[in-house]
Design a protein that fits this description.
The protein has about 450 residues and is mainly α. The chain has helices at about 15-20, 30-60, 65-95, 95-120, 125-150, 155-185, 190-210, 235-240, 245-280, 290-315, 315-320, 325-345, 350-370, 380-410, 415-450. The chain folds into two domains: about 25-230, MFS general substrate transporter like domains (Growth Hormone, Chain: A, Up-down Bundle); about 245-450, MFS general substrate transporter like domains (Growth Hormone, Chain: A, Up-down Bundle). The protein has 15 helices and no strands.
């Protein structure tokens, strides 16, 4: 690798736009255009996803045993990903970066009008669409972050990823609002065509970034990397043969196992509270659904607001002043305190607020940090191994959580406190892995800097 040009360390810009962005993170001269376009790109992807989510729920639940079928699809998604991830890896071997991203995104875009046409023709597409959107939400978002990792150095990623991740958070909030507004005016399935248009816009933004947007002072044009092969390694083999990637995979697996079990704990205690209010005469039997719906509406609103505030004003500063090795341990520490409190005092008020703390930190700080973990990896690891971890490993954690809940409720008669204590034990193991990840990240980053 050739040495960097003999320039001084970049300093924050005095341009108005970059001064504004400096409220949230450190932005150097010339970085604002690409930073904002990447933020817009992921904003559009998440907006499209959250526009499609109500369609997914409406289709899957509007059939016999829909709730049960919905739970089974998680296992089916994990099984599909065992096949799809190696296919993606093969495609990444054959295609350079820009063509890979275009090909995969165009495939997902073309599926949406097909699903719309089939549903209009009366064909049952609920299960295929549920499987499809689950794979889309994992693979396309992982692909975006692989690209963001590929065009940033570790130093740049530590400064800028918090702002880019805000694009994902705000896209989720805006998409949820937009879907609620449009579904009343257009109905359910037309939202698929709206999502198609949004994804086309996101693809146009990506191609504009990759072809034309450069940061002053860069010695290599952003678009020139499109001619470099990604590599011919098997995605699963890349993870299994690399200690650092195995540590990351184990941490993400435990994160999703714990979080999915935590969602069950919250759902269980909310349902119990609703039943208790009906029995006590505080609410009518027909209003139980409204009680649960109102609870979750308020809960999600608080989680999203707290998460966005953390994303804007806290995440970049935690990473800057405490460093990634500390930042990656914060969520398991929050979860440890949360589930210990839930185990000792399994009340609705306690569980609600400890899950609010856990999820708001997960959606902001941890969501940023987990993508930053791939900054000191090779391009092949970014595009292929990240797909394994962000798709298959995530779903595997969800499946094992479901199996834990099934065993605990069917054979062991566990209640909220017992499931919370299981999560405490899992979090302690998770914390061991995050400490090891922080050390390995530091070692890899320092080695890359010395090599440069």
């Amino acid at each position: 690798m050739s040495p960097p040009p003999p320039t001084t360390v970049p300093t924050p810009s005095n341009r108005p736009l970059e001064r504004f962005l400096a409220l949230f993170t450190e932005v150097h001269a010339g970085e604002a255009p690409r930073l904002l376009l990447l933020t817009a790109n992921v904003f559009l992807i998440l907006t499209a996803y959250y526009v499609m989510k109500p369609v997914r729920e409406a289709l899957i639940l509007d059939q016999p045993h829909g709730a049960e079928i919905k739970s089974y699809t998680l296992a089916a998604q994990a099984a599909l990903l065992v096949v799809i991830v190696p296919l993606y890896g093969r495609l990444a071997t054959l295609l350079p970066r820009r063509r890979l991203i275009n090909a995969v995104t165009v495939f997902f875009i073309l599926c949406l009008p097909l699903f719309y046409a089939l549903s209009q023709a009366g064909v049952r597409v609920a299960v295929p669409f549920f499987l499809w959107i689950g794979i889309f939400s994992l693979m396309v978002i992982a692909q975006f972050w692989a690209y963001a990792n590929d065009i940033h150095t570790p130093e740049e990623g530590k400064r800028l990823f918090a702002v880019i991740a805000f694009g994902a958070s705000s896209g989720a909030v805006f998409g949820a609002w937009l879907s609620g507004y449009l579904i009343r005016a257009l109905g359910v399935t037309p939202l698929l065509l709206v999502a198609t248009a949004i994804l086309v816009a996101s693809l146009l933004v990506f191609n504009f970034i990759d072809r034309y947007v450069r940061t002053p002072g860069k010695t290599v044009a952003v678009s020139s990397a499109d001619d470099v092969p990604i590599g011919d390694g098997n995605p699963f083999a890349l993870v299994l043969s690399n200690r650092y990637l195995l540590l990351v995979a184990a941490a993400i697996f435990l994160l999703n196992w714990v979080n999915s079990a935590g969602e069950y704990i919250l759902s269980s205690i909310v349902k119990h509270a609703a039943d208790a209010d009906v029995q006590a005469g505080r609410i009518a039997a027909g209003d139980e659904g409204r009680f649960i719906g109102t609870f979750y509406a308020d809960y999600f609103q608080v989680v999203n607001i707290v998460g966005m505030v953390l994303q804007l004003f806290v995440v970049s500063r935690v990473i800057r002043y405490l460093g990634l090795p500390v930042a990656v341990c914060i969520l398991p520490l929050v979860a440890l305190g949360s589930y210990a409190a839930a185990a000792l005092i399994p009340s609705l008020a306690i569980v609600r607020w400890v899950k609010t703390a856990e999820n708001s930190v997960d959606y902001s700080l941890m969501n940023t940090v987990r993508h930053m973990l791939f900054l000191p990896t090779t391009r092949e690891e970014k595009f292929k191994a990240k797909q394994v971890i962000d798709s298959f490993v995530v779903r595997a954690g969800d499946v094992l959580s479901a199996l834990t809940i099934f065993a605990g409720t069917t054979f062991l008669a566990f209640g909220v406190a017992q499931f919370a204590w299981i999560n405490v034990g899992l979090v302690l193991v998770w914390l061991v892995f995050t400490v090891a990840i922080g050390r390995e990240f530091t070692r890899r980053t320092e080695s890359a800097q010395q090599a440069a």
